[in-house]
């Protein structure tokens, strides 16, 4: 469980790295959009070649479809609630809505991050070591997430201290999610593990389509398609190494 927590922390620390870049470096919104596109491609690859494929190998198509749909529906419902609390543009680098409360932003970050962290923990089940491609995907996608959202919070007038504190809390909770993903499912039947993996995949896919891709295209234009493909290809090569 400690190993799962460590790798979950590695993925969560990337949020703080992105936040520090947004707070103390001069970075254009176009560059942020391109980095978001790359991170999107990386996560798409991890979903396809790590989570979904492994779930299918464990328990077949029925478990995968069940988990994908359940994860997508749960994320959609949670995201809909947060949208109406002002957190619908939590990944925008140009500023949040005035009614976006700190609690809504934290819950939004957790809604985005917990499925990824749980997937890291689940990848350790079986004793074959952590899924390197999953950790790399989460780390590389969390940097643009922390970068973009922190730039938006900074533009909205939030202090550096409050921004960094928020991401530190999120990173710690994501660390716990990775540990729980391993601890609770370490002795679970293959079908349960498969549904959990595909549940995380469905939530991540919905998050990418609903929040990452629109913001990336809005700020970087059609070039996002190319960098997304590049991110996908890089993560695919990592998963086959």
| SSE topology string | HHHHHHHH
What's the β-strand tally?
Answer: 0
Kindly state the percentage of residues in helix.
over 70%
Structural class: mainly alpha
In DSSP terms, counting alpha (H) and pi (I) runs of 4 or more, how many helices? 8
Shape: globular
Mean pLDDT: 83
Q: How many domain modules?
A: 1
Sheet with the most strands? none
Cα distance, first to last residue?
A: 25 Å
Residues in β-strands, percent: under 5%
What is the alpha-carbon Rg in Å? 17 Å
The low-confidence parts are none
Overview features:
single chain, 241 residues, mainly alpha, 8 helices
Describe the protein's architecture and organization:
This protein has 241 residues and is mainly alpha-helical. The chain has one domain. Helices cover 84% and strands 0% of the residues. The longest helix is centred in the N-terminal third of the chain and has 31 residues, at 29-59. It is globular, with a radius of gyration of 17 Å. The two termini are 25 Å apart.
How is the secondary structure organized here?
Elements: H1 2-24, H2 29-59, H3 61-87, H4 102-123, H5 132-155, H6 160-185, H7 190-220, H8 223-240
Helix pairs in contact: 1-4, 1-5, 1-6, 2-3, 2-5, 2-7, 2-8, 3-4, 3-7, 4-5, 4-6, 4-7, 5-8
Gist?
The chain has one domain. It has helices at 2-24, 29-59, 61-87, 102-123, 132-155, 160-185, 190-220, 223-240. The chain is mainly α and 241 residues long.
